[in-house]
Write a structure and sequence with these properties.
The chain is mostly beta strands and 884 residues long. Helix content is 4%, strand content 64%. It has 6 helices and 50 strands. The chain has a 34-stranded mixed sheet that branches. The radius of gyration is 37 Å and the shape is elongated.
Length: 884
């Protein structure tokens, strides 16, 4: 045993003392020490590292090599920005110094990409850079392409099928319902993220009650977009004929101040008024949106809009100026001022063939129309609000003045000239106050609204000679009409929450007073004559509504049941001062409302809804005196008070997985509307006489909407598929025969955005429509010929380098009723050159020089074939300048 122990100790000692210790120092050619260099020891010709060290601050290293029965070692020295050195040295303890030679090191390129979509609680964040193309200019261009988001022609935004409730810019609601101003004026390069906020509650004190199920959108700006004035200007000129397209925009976004202001003008077909579109789906606290709608008695002359873009067929001269200012005050209050002015002159030229399907006959009307519309609109809004955890105050005062004038020259069997003067004036004030006391919210809301709509229609030569002039031709007929409307709605409510149960009690009163004055005159042999009382109306309508509502909400996790039980005492008094006719009615209405939201699984939600609404129709339905609506339509109504009862059933299912960029929804809505009056229409040649008579009837409609979208991250491709179906059933009298008119429309839409290649982007939008109608009477069934439409838009962008982009835009339309088929192609092409602080763009529009487009439109018992004149081929040069 002692012998074996001695042998083992001798072996260990031999191994320790046979270790090689390699040490040394590193210098460069200037004799400067080099630290943090890697010193590696390997067996010659092999990859395995047997020892290593890093030079210290003095450039020194020391490596103890393990015992190896080999004669030599390989030592390698590496340091960034120096050429590596490799030497083969003896396997023994030694000191060896190195002098390294400088050499720049090429590092491999590493691209770090942010995830395109991230989720933080109820907030879905879209990284704008992941979805933007080099051709995109404004944030609205990108929002329209985001998976799960839909945007219509007016800029209205839906997130997974639900309209957004608020549109914020860095957390501030500068524009309220007119957020399309932001979509079309905030440059894309200023935005970092688009954030979608689920179940957003804009009033802070109500946030803990968690009753909101609507989304909101927030534009998160980049740091370089803040605390400075940002400007953008455009100068554009072109030919065929002389064209221009100009604008100047200024923006400023500070933590306590925001500004967007712009002036634009063009005659190249760009529709500027869309920026001022008021998103009526945004409901505000205390709003009475139904009172903000313009009521007209006399009709516009415009034909149905074709599916092609308005910039293809409108000849315009448009000026738009708007400003929006938000200031945060010291008490955390917000003061907002918004104003705009729009001067829009546009003309259209069309040829229309209208087929009227009647129970026992078919009428054909051919019209050629030259129409011009001049709108002058002034809007101003002053908004003061305080939004705190225990206190909420808002007062919004607004004024609107809209002076509109239309000129129409129509040729059917003979020329007819029409002039419609159609102004609109409105003032409204909305006030809301919320106080949080002892875990209860006490609220007061008040709305005051006044609007006036005076109208004048001049028709040359005079029409309906048998009614207006004993069947003798005469020079001119003049129709006057005016509606004055005063409305005030005031209520008090308190809201409390006990565990999972939330209850709100509201009581209020609404008063509506409307006056309708109409009269007519004619010119015979250059002498003006007023028409008698049968062509006049002077109606006073008063509606008083006292209401109370109990609303209960039960919330459990993400499931919510909401039940509203409103009860109202509604009284209407009407008086026709010309006929001494009086009538009044008092009704008690019960309008229950139920909504159930269920979270089935993560990201999968259903909503079930039911509501019943009682109300009164418009007082325009009780005008006993004749009213000339257009040159070929005259109207006379019953004197009964119109009543309506509407039932709405809805079911929706929503699915979303933002991290997988998958979104989908399907919604069904079924509506029945019961009326006590029915519309009758009688035709004599191409003249139409419309009368409302007493007869109980029910209108029915079914609407199905669905959409699914998926963004493929690796392929940088977004695909969205939508389906829409609408079925309407309307009872009516045609030529003294009772009929049911059924109209149905299907639409399938496919959108694809492809941005995989750095040199190429593509966008395509394809839609297929089928429209049809059927007229059923006790003795016959008339099936109108179905109309088929295909619409395909394809945009191609080729990026030659960082500065030059070629783009092509092709719109293909096909319309058919099985008897006739029309195919139309509109092509645009251009080049965009990016300069240091500006862009130069050359565009050819409608280079195929398509001069007309024919659309087929089914409406009620009518089938219209509309041939629309199109703007000819034109060429524009636009110069964009950015300044800060």
């Amino acid at each position: 045993m002692k012998f074996l122990t001695s042998i083992f100790l001798l072996f260990i000692s031999a191994c320790v003392f046979s270790q090689s210790i390699i040490s040394g120092k590193l210098l460069n050619e200037q004799k400067e020490v080099l630290f943090n260099a890697n010193v590696i020891i390997k067996k010659p010709g092999q990859l395995e590292i047997i020892a290593y060290a890093i030079t210290n601050i003095n450039g020194e290293f020391e490596i103890k090599c393990p015992y190896l029965i080999i004669d030599s070692l390989e030592i390698k020295i590496t340091l960034i920005n120096y050429a590596p050195q490799v030497k083969v040295i003896a396997n023994k303890t030694q000191v060896i110094n190195f002098t390294l030679i400088e050499k720049k090191t090429e590092l491999p390129m590493v691209t770090v990409q942010a995830r395109p979509i991230t989720v933080n609680g109820d907030t879905t964040n879209y990284n704008v850079a992941s979805f933007a193309g080099k051709q995109d200019k404004f944030i609205g261009d990108v929002i329209a392409k985001l998976p799960g988001i839909e945007m219509d022609a007016n800029g209205q935004i839906k997130y997974n099928g639900k309209p957004i409730s608020n549109y914020y810019i860095d957390g501030l609601d500068l524009l309220e319902s007119r957020y399309n101003i932001a979509n079309q004026n905030i440059p894309l390069n200023l935005v970092d993220q688009v954030q979608l906020l689920d179940n957003h509650q804009p009033i802070k004190m109500l946030d803990s009650f968690n009753t909101s199920t609507t989304p909101a959108l927030n534009i998160k700006l980049k740091p370089n977009a803040k605390n400075k004035l940002i400007g953008r200007a455009k100068l554009g000129a072109g030919i065929s004929p002389l064209l221009w397209d100009n604008e100047i925009t200024a923006l400023q976004f500070n933590p306590a101040f925001q500004l967007i202001t712009s002036y634009k003008n063009n005659n190249s077909g760009n529709i500027l008024g869309n920026e001022l579109a008021n998103n009526v789906n945004i409901r505000r606290f205390g709003d009475a949106t139904e009172q903000n709608v313009k009521e007209s008695i006399l009709n516009s002359f415009t034909t149905s809009k074709p599916v092609i873009g308005e910039n293809k067929y409108l000849f315009n001269n448009t000026h738009l100026s708007h400003f929006s200012i938000l200031k945060l005050l010291k008490n955390k209050a917000q003061l907002k001022l918004n104003g705009s002015y729009l001067n829009d002159y546009k003309t259209t030229e069309s040829h229309t063939n209208t087929v009227f399907y009647l129970p026992s006959d078919t009428l054909l009307l051919a019209e050629k129309q030259n129409n011009s519309v001049n709108d002058n609109q002034i809007n101003a809004n002053l908004n003061y609000s305080i939004n705190k955890e225990k206190f909420y105050l808002k007062n919004a005062a607004s004024i609107k003045m809209d002076y509109g004038k239309e000129n129409n020259n129509t040729v059917n069997s003979s020329p007819v000239r029409q002039i419609l003067i159609n102004p609109f004036y409105q003032y409204s004030n909305d006030f809301a106050l919320n106080l949080l006391r002892h875990k209860k919210v006490y609220s007061i809301a008040s709305v005051v609204n006044y609007k006036r709509t005076p109208q004048t229609l001049e028709v040359e030569p005079g029409q309906f000679t048998s009614i207006f002039n004993q069947s003798v031709p005469y020079e001119q007929l003049i129709q006057y009409a005016a509606i004055n409307n005063f409305n005030t709605n005031n209520n008090f409510s308190f809201l409390t929450k006990m565990g999972k149960l939330q209850q709100q009690i509201k009581i209020g009163a609404e008063y509506i007073q409307k006056t309708i004055h109409t009269s007519a005159g004619k010119i015979v042999n250059q002498v003006s004559y007023p028409l008698n009382d049968s062509f006049q109306n002077k109606i006073n309508w008063q509606n008083t509504r006292l209401y109370a509502e109990a609303r209960s909400t039960i919330t459990k996790k993400k499931n919510q049941l909401e039940i509203a039980i409103p009860l109202e005492l509604n009284s209407v008094n009407i008086r026709n001062q010309l006929s001494s006719f009086k009538d009044n009615t008092t009704d008690i209405f019960f309008n229950p409302n139920l909504n159930l939201t269920t979270q089935i699984a993560q990201g999968l939600q259903t909503q079930l809804g039911y509501s019943m609404t009682h109300g009164y129709g418009s007082p325009t339905l009780i005008t006993q005196g004749y009213i000339l609506k257009t040159y070929r339509n005259i109207n006379q109504n019953d004197s009964l008070i119109p009543k309506q009862k509407q039932s709405l059933y809805t079911f929706s299912i929503f699915f979303k997985d933002p991290l997988k960029a998958l979104f989908g929804y399907a919604t069904a809505a079924y509506v029945t509307t019961r009326n006590n009056l029915i519309t009758t229409q009688s035709y004599s040649n191409f003249y139409t006489k419309t009368i409302a008579l007493q007869l109980a009837n029910t209108q029915k409609s079914l609407l199905l909407t669905s959409n699914i979208s998926k963004y493929f991250i690796t392929a940088r491709t977004n695909i969205a598929l939508g389906y829409y179906y609408n079925n309407i059933q309307i009872p009516q009298y045609l030529q003294s025969s009772f009929v049911n008119i059924h109209s149905a429309a299907h639409r399938v839409q496919l959108k694809i955005n492809y941005a995989k290649k750095s040199w190429f982007n593509a966008e395509t939008n394809t839609g297929f429509d089928v429209s049809k109608s059927k007229i059923t009477s006790p003795t016959s069934v008339i099936n109108n010929t179905p109309v088929y439409r295909i619409q395909q838009n394809l945009k191609l962008y080729f990026y030659l380098n960082k500065k030059i982009t070629f783009f092509f835009n092709n719109d293909f339309y096909s319309v058919s009723d099985k008897k006739n088929t029309g195919n139309y192609l509109f092509s645009d092409a251009g080049i965009k050159i990016k300069l240091k602080k500006s862009d130069l763009e050359l565009t050819g529009t409608n280079v195929t020089n398509t001069r007309s487009y024919t659309s087929l439109v089914i409406s009620s018992n009518q089938m219209q074939t509309i041939k629309q004149e199109v703007r000819p081929a034109n060429f524009m040069v636009r110069y964009w300048l950015n300044f800060k």
